Predict the structure.
Amino acid sequence: MENIQDQFLSFNVDNDGVATLTIDQKEASTNLFSVEFIQRYISVAQEAIADDAIKGVIVTSGKSLFMAGADLKALLEELPDKKEFYDNLMQLHRGLREIETGGKPFVSAINGTALGGGLELCLATHHRIAINSTKIKIGFPEIKVGLFPGGGGTVKAPYLLGIQNALMYLLQGIEARPEKALKDGLIDAVASNQDEMMQAAKTFILENPNPVQPWDNKKHKIPGGSMWTPNGVQTLIGASGNVGKLTHGNYPSAQKIVKVLHDGMQIPVDRALEIEARYFTQAVDTPEAKNMIRTGFFAIQDAAKGKSRPKDQPKYEIQKLGILGAGMMGAGIAYVSAKAGMDVVLKDVTQEGAEKGKSYSTMLLDKAIAKRRSTPEKKEALLARITPTDDPNAVEGSDLIIEAVFENVDLKDKVTKETEAVLGKDKIYGSNTSTIPISLLAQSSSRPENFIGIHFFSPVDKMPLVEIIVGEKTEDKAIAAAVDYTVAIKKVPIVVNDSRGFFTSRCFSTFVSEGMFLLEEGVPAPMIERVATKIGMPVGPLAVHDEVSLTLSVHIFESDPAPKTSTEERSYKIVKDLVENHQRTGKRDGAGFYDYPKGGQKKLWAGLKELFPPKVDAVKEPIVKKRMLHRQALESYRCLEEGVLRSTTDGDIGSILGWGFPIFTGGALSYIDYVGINEFIADCDAFKSSYGERWEIPQSLRDLAAAGKSIHDFGK
C-alpha cells in the first residue's frame, strides 16, 4: 500500500510494517466527523487491513485537537429522507465494525481533545492512548446539543465504563481529562509526551496481532456487572425513572440513551448498533435538537468569538484594568480579569474593603488547588496581578474602567467624575449596572462616546454572559473594546441598545412578576415553584426573587423616576408589603418567600398561605406553564421590536445564559417558533382577556404569522 496525502488524512508505513494514519482535514480549522471524512477514513483502513505487509495502524491527528466531533451544521437541515439517513448511519457502523473485526490492531494515539464522534472513532480502535495533559478532554458531550452518541458510542460505552458510569458520561455530557478517562476505563493508557505515546502505540501493535474488542469477547466482564445482575437491573430502572423525573420529557435524547443501553445490551453488538441508529435518526430530527444545536452550539460559539463587535475597529488591548467597587461583583470581575492575564486595580472606599474583595480570588484559587485544577504557583501569580486600594488615583493608566458600585445614580455620578480625572482621554469607561439607563449615567461623563454598559451576572466567575449596553452617544470604539475585553476573559458578549432594564433584567423580571401574580391569584406556592422547574427553568420565580433580594426590587422601583405601568405597580405592592409589613427581605437575611434556617434546607414560608390563600378554582397547571414562559417570550419580542435587541439570536443567547431560559426551546424568542407563532398569539390574546394589557401582542408579530414566517425572519 502506497503512502497517502490528501485533503482528509495522510498515511505512511514504517520499516516495521506499522502504519500511521494522521487525520488532518485541510479545508477545516479542526477535524470533524463528517460523512466525507469517514468514508475516506474507512476506505483507507480497509486497504490497510487487506495489505499483508501492514501489521497495524496508529490513528492520530495532525491538529492540536484530535477531533472535535460531528459536523453539526449538516444536522441543522431537515432530513430529506429518514430511511436514507438511517441507511447512511448503518453504512458507517458497518465500516467501523470492519476495522474492529478485520484481524489487525488499530490504536488511537490521542494527542488532543477527542469528543463525540472523535471519541467514537477511537472506540472503533482496539487500544486508546492519550497524552496526559490537562488541556485534553475526552468524552461524549452530545446531550448538550440535544443528541446522544450515534456512531457507536452509546452501545459501546457500558462495556468499557460499566452501566452506571456510562449513563453518567452520556447523560451529563462528561468531558474527562486523560487521568480520569483512564481511571474510568474509557482509554487504556496515558503517555507523558508525543514520542512516548507513539512508541507505546507501536509496541501494542507488534505485541497484539489479533486484538478483540470487549463487545466481541464473550469472556469480557462489564465493570459493575451486566444488566441482568441486581446492580445492573437497579441502575437501569433507577435511571429510567430519574431521567423522566428530571427532564419532564423536555430532552427526548436523554430517555433514548437509557433505551439504547437497555435494549442494546441484551443482543449482539451489530444488532445493538441498529437500535442506536434508529433512535439517533429520530433524535436528530427533533425540534429540541435543532434548537440546541442552532443556539446552544453555533450561536453561543460565534458570540464567544466576538461576532457582535464592529468590524472596522482595531483590536482594543487591555493590559491594566481599573475596577471601582470591591463587592461581590467587583471581586468576581477582578478574578476573571486577572486570570486572563490583566493587571487589575481593585478600588474600594476603604483599604479593608478592597482587601476583602481580593480575598474572594484567594478563596476561589484555594478551591481550585484542592480540586487539582490549579497550583500554588499559579495562585500566587494571579494574586500578584490584583492590587487592592482605596486611592482613586491608583487607576491612572488603566485601559478600561469597570464601575461596579451600588445601584445609585448619585454615587455612580461621583465615582465617574473622580475616575475620569485620572483616566486617559481615549480610554473606555464601563458601568456594571443592571437597571439604570446607560445614557443617563453617561451624562456624568465628559466623554460619553467612550461610555458603555458592561453588565455582568452573579457569580461572575461562573456566569458566562456579559450584556454590553450601548448608550445614545456610545461610539463603535467603545463597543469593540467592551467585546474584546469580554472575549479576553472568556465570557460570551451580547450587544444591546439602551433602555430601562436593558434586555436581561427587563425580561427576567417578567418571570418573577408572573410568579407573584399567580401566587396572588390563589395558585399554591409549591405548585408555582414545581411547575417552573418542570418547564425547564433552573429555579422557581419565588426562590430566584429571594436570591436577587426583595429589598433590591423595592429600591430599584423607588429610585427609578420613569413612569410605571400598572403591572410594575402591582409587582411593587406585593414586594413592598412583604418587606415592610412582614420583614421578608430575601435569602441574605434568611427570610423571603422562603425560610432559610441555618444549617437546614430552605422551605416555603408558612405565612404565604395566610397572605395569599390558595383557591380551588385558581389557574390550572397547563396555564401556569404557559404564563411563565409566554410572558418572558412576549417581553423579549417587544425588546426586539423596539430595537433594544439587535437580533433574534442575541435574545436567545441572552435568555439562556443570562437567566436560564430553557435551552431546548432555543431561547426566549425561538420559543415562539417552538410553540408555533399562531398558537402563541392565540394564547396571549386569551390571556389578555383574562389577565390584562400586559399580554397585548405587537402588530408586527401578527404580520409575521400572517406571512407564514419564522421569528428569525423579523426585520427581513
Remarks:
- The two ends are 55 Å apart (CA to CA).
- The chain has a mean pLDDT of 95.
